[in-house]
Amino acid sequence: MFGRRKKQTPPPYVRGNKIPVIRSSICTGEQVAGFKDTVSGKFEELMLLRNDRDFQEFLRQYQVEESEIRREW
């Protein structure tokens, strides 16, 4: 009833349909990592990036190379 939450499994990353994107706010500098659908252009937010450790966790969790990531403002 109270206490522990179940660990959520990350949604699968299909390389053909989605591309990894980091959205950055121009005003506040806040960064959000996620995937953008290449067909519809819809962005799916997955993780708030507060520091480099969060960024490295995103790369490890979704097996993404740093060179594959695009930045949007």
Element layout with pairings:
Elements: E1 18-24, E2 31-37, E3 43-49, H1 52-62, E4 70-72
Parallel strand pairs: 1-4
Antiparallel strand pairs: 1-2, 2-3
How would you describe this protein?
By secondary structure, the chain is of the alpha+beta class. The chain has one helix spanning 52-62, and strands at 18-24, 31-37, 43-49, 70-72. Strands 3-2-1-4 form a four-stranded mixed sheet. The longest helix is centred in the C-terminal third of the chain and has 11 residues, at 52-62. It is globular and about 40 Å long. It starts with 17 loop residues before the first strand and ends with a strand.
Task: Name the features.
73 residues, alpha+beta, 4-stranded mixed β-sheet, 1 helix, 4 strands, globular
In short:
It contains one helix and four strands, in the order βββαβ. It has 73 residues and is of the alpha+beta class.
Strand order of the largest sheet: 3-2-1-4
Number of helices: 1
Radius of gyration: 14 Å
Number of strands: 4
Give the number of domains: 1
| Overall outline | globular
Helix fraction by DSSP (H/I, runs of at least 4): 10-25%
Regions with little confidence, pLDDT below 50 for 5+ residues: none
The topology string of helices and strands comes to EEEHE
User: In this structure, how is the largest beta sheet organized?
Assistant: 4 strands, mixed
Average pLDDT, all residues: 87
* Beta-strand proportion: 25-35%
Q: Distance between termini?
A: 42 Å
Question: What structural category characterises the helix and strand content?
Answer: alpha+beta
